[in-house]
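In practice, a research group might receive sequence data for several interacting partners and want a quick structural hypothesis before committing to experiments. The following worked case mirrors that situation: the sequences arrive first, and a predicted assembly follows.
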Amino acid sequence: MLGPSRREFLLGGAASLAAFAAGSFGARQAQAADHALTLAGLDYRILPEMLTRGMMSFSPDGPPPVLRFKQGVKTTIDVTNALQEASVVHWHGLRIANRMDGVPYLTQHPIEAGQTFRYAFTPPDAGTYWYHPHCNTLEQMARGLTGVLVVEEEQDPGFDRDLPLNIRDFRLGGDGQFIDLFKPRNAARGGSYGTVSTVNWQVDPVYDLEAGSLVRLRLAVTDVTRVGSFEIDGAEAQVIALDSNPLPMPLPASDLLLAPGQRADIALRVPDDESEEVRLVLNRPNGAKVLARFRPGGSSLHRDLRELRALPLNPVAEPDLENADVLDFVFGWSPEGDAPQSSLCGSLGYTFWSINRVAWPGDLPGPFDPLARLKLGKSYILRLRNETPNDHPIHLHGVSFKLLRSNKRKLPPLVTDTALLRSQETMEVALVADNPGDWAFHCHVIEHQKTGLAGFLRIED
Ligand code: C2O
Ligand code: CU
Ligand code: CU
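A structural hypothesis for the assembly, expressed as tokens:
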């Protein structure tokens, strides 16, 4: 798939990039893009009365904007890098062309400081997604670069309001400033947790909603570490989609386990009375924590959850299990690894983890061998074995997969891009390899990803 010519071009250095920018691409750039993002540093008030310095966002003036695209409609996004370092933007969960996937070296040259890169793609599926850098990933995400991305269905399902909730922590000290973004001893275990929980960059925000209305809450867990159990408390609420894919049957919005990278769409029936507060709660081992509140206001609209149209299924191909090949992946410790090499996209300086006994060496030009080669159009069963005592949300770019079975629990037949592998769990998932290219495959606990638990699958003709 990636022939030498494309590799050379990707790594061809400034001269060929400049020639490219001045050539065919230059003409297209003349037209404004549908969306524009500027990666920039900023100071922002996360805690009341305290300015947190050294944050990063997709806009110089505030939290990352919610991007809204339409299913099946081509869109363009100009990403300008106003940081002092290289970056690249990945559209988590979108099944788009490989060269628009935003992974350094694997799909494009990093966007260096001061450069602009135009992404252009057509989202084939609708749902709740998110976007984040894939270069110096831990630091850039920890400082704020995680945004919610919505792909709207062609037909509106009938909500009165659509409310994306970007759920994540920041590692701040009592003075509101960043503390060390990770600790090596945590990176070798469950990862370093943030100290301040936020929704849309606010601590315990209150949203005023119309009494008796139907609201689509789009939960996106964009945290770098935390696996959490979430709940909507104080109202009738149903989970209608997970990881962008509609559920065959709605689930109660309680005890909802979401890992970094995962999303849930919740249909909320706002109570009729102003005194009835609704809460988004994170249930932790040491007690429940309210993340956000929703307050009914005005006279009731008297809506009913049954008035909602079912979400249309996304056009994800059904794997042919009879003729599928099985591919094995073992997620484990790293064999005595070399310290990863530094690169334009940074390194945490440690190697702790591996996939099939190989630790990803870092975001480097390569070329590297894929973990597996998949034949375009063929069905596969991936057997994912976690031989560690830690949780690993395993994420695959470019294709969605279906959960089949686990040695530990009963799995619903969900279609997803990020599956949470619990401690010592083995899970089988299935997919149709229908999108050609080199697709990143990694744990979404970013400290794990950046200390070895990463690789890629090659889908080729
Ligand atoms: Cu959300 Cu490779 O990542
Ligand atoms: Cu992704
Ligand atoms: Cu992990």
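Before designing any experiment, note the following. Residues 171 and 195 are 5 Å apart (CA to CA). The pocket of CU-O-CU linkage (ligand 1) is lined by residues 90, 92, 132, 134, 261, 395, 397, 440, 442, 444 (CB under 6 Å).
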